[in-house]
Structure formats: C-alpha cells, structure tokens
Amino acid sequence: MNNIHWSGIRSFIAVAEHGSFTAAADALGMSKASLSQQVTALEKALGVQLLYRTTRILRLTEIGQGYYEQCRTGVDQLDNAREWATQSTQALSGSIHMNSVGGLIGEELIAPMLIDFQQAYPQIDVSLDFSSQRVDLIESQYDLVMRMGELPDSSLIARRLHAITTRYVASPAFLENQGAIQHPNDLRELPLIYGSVSEWLFVKPDEQVRIQASRGFQIANGRVMCRAAEQGLGVARLADPYVNVALREGSLIEVLSEWRQTTPLSLICPPARYQLNRVRALADWLIEHFPARYQPFA
C-alpha cells in the first residue's frame, strides 16, 4: 500500500465519521481541498464511488459503507499493533476509555478507584462514561467495560470483579400493615417500588414466577428506591450495596430471601486492547482494590 492510498483511507474514514469534508479537514488539521483530493484519488484507485456528493448532501454509497467498516477495523488493528510494539520501551501512559453502569456502583465504587488510579499513574488519561445500555466493544472505542449479568461466550477478555445479590426489601411498618410475604405471588396486589424494569422474574430450579408492577412508586434511581422503601411505600427490588446498611440498622427487612438472585460484575475488554499495558494495569487495579472499596456497603 503506497502512502497516497494510505492517506486516502485515513481521509475517507474522517469524512465518513464527521459527515462533511469541512469538519473532517478541521479534525485532521488539513485543508478541505487536500482532503477532497485524497478521497477522490482513493476512489479512482479503487475504481468505485465511495461517497455521494451534492451541494447539500454527503453520504456513503453502499460500497462506501462496507469499505468504511472494514477500513475502520483494519486501522484500529494497526493502531493497536503500533501501540503494543512501542509500549515496552515506555512508561505507562496514554488514554483509557471505560464504560460502566452508573448509580451507586459507578459513582461510589468504580469512579473513586479510577480517580486513585489516575493519581497513581498521572501519565494515563482516564475517560469514564456511565451508561446502562449494552456496549458493543468491537464496534465502540471503549477499552474496558464493566457489565452486570451473565456473559455470552465470545472472543472478549472477561475478568470477574464481584457478585451482586438482588434482595427484596420493605420497611417494618409496611410489613406489619400488609402481613407476611411468603411467596412472589403475594406481591401481585401490593405496591412495588421499581425502576426501569417493571416485570420481576423469580426463578428456582423447579419454579418460575413473573410479577408485573401495576401500582406503587417508579423511579430509576437505586438510592431513591431505597429511601421510598424505608418510608413504607412498598416492596423494593434492589442490589445489596443499596440496602445492606439499612438491613443491618433495621430500617428495612428482607423478604423472599430464598428467591435472591446473584448477578456477576465483570470487566470486559477486547483482546487487542487487553494487550496494552495500561489497560491491563487498570483491570488489575480495579480487581485488587474492589473488595476494600466495597466493604462499607457489604
């Protein structure tokens, strides 16, 4: 591959990702005319049209879309290879982009550990994003993702961080007024405190029960859900970091303990990124320091 072809690929990727020649030229620090010439030369060398261009519209052709996706993957692999080859002669440095669930787990557990990590390694720039949405690590630019739940078999590197237990809790006053809760079916006529998941699935080896929340209090915030349960608004379904202290202090009581659910917390990383010393160092750091950080919530 000659330099002109390689420059054209880089320029084409920038145009595809920024949506215009002007924005791509600004991002690359080159003139719009030079950028356009490189993309045109690439199309001529390939013998195909990659972009539809009018005075008002710029979009990828069908071939252009496929070519972009393959070039993006190839460029990422080459960049990863370059970093891997040069890192052995360098101190831990560079950038790490991490995605994590938010709420108490992200804000009180993960974020403080990342702050401590960046203080210990000031040459590493850490970017943390909170999101409850599933992230496709192959397609995204994240180096490391913390996920809850069982993970499908894949080529990704997965390391177990912890296991979270989901508990069903209510205040003593609520239970005194409503009576004992001995089976999930007892929840059908009770007010529930729930977040984005309004259908609760209870699973045992020989039984499954689905409960649809039809009345109660809905808020997608674990801290508020815990407070609402303490105030007697209903039965809440929450991960144990939110409720363990309240259970110890007696402001909440666990019900249906035999229906608890355990959910793993895992760190996920593409193999190519895991080979980078800085990414592996962060994963090691989180696994090493998580137990002590989690202790106040246990």
List its traits.
D-Maltodextrin-Binding Protein, domain 2, two-stranded antiparallel ribbon, 298 residues, 10 helices, 2 domains, alpha/beta, Arc Repressor Mutant, subunit A
Descriptive notes:
Belongs to the LysR transcriptional regulatory family. It comes from Pontibacterium sinense. One of its GO terms (biological process) is DNA-templated transcription. The protein is of the alpha/beta class and 298 residues long. The chain contains 10 helices and 13 strands. The protein has helices spanning 3-18, 21-28, 32-46, 62-87, 103-120, 172-178, 222-230, 240-249, 271-274, 277-294, and strands at 51-53, 58-60, 94-100, 124-130, 144-148, 157-170, 192-194, 199-204, 207-212, 216-218, 235-239, 253-255, 261-269. The strands form 3 sheets. Strands 3, 4, 5, 6, 7, 10, 11, 12 and 13 form a 9-stranded mixed β-sheet that branches. A hairpin with a 2-residue loop joins strand 8 (199-204) and strand 9 (207-212). The longest helix is centred in the N-terminal third of the chain and has 26 residues, at 62-87. It is elongated.
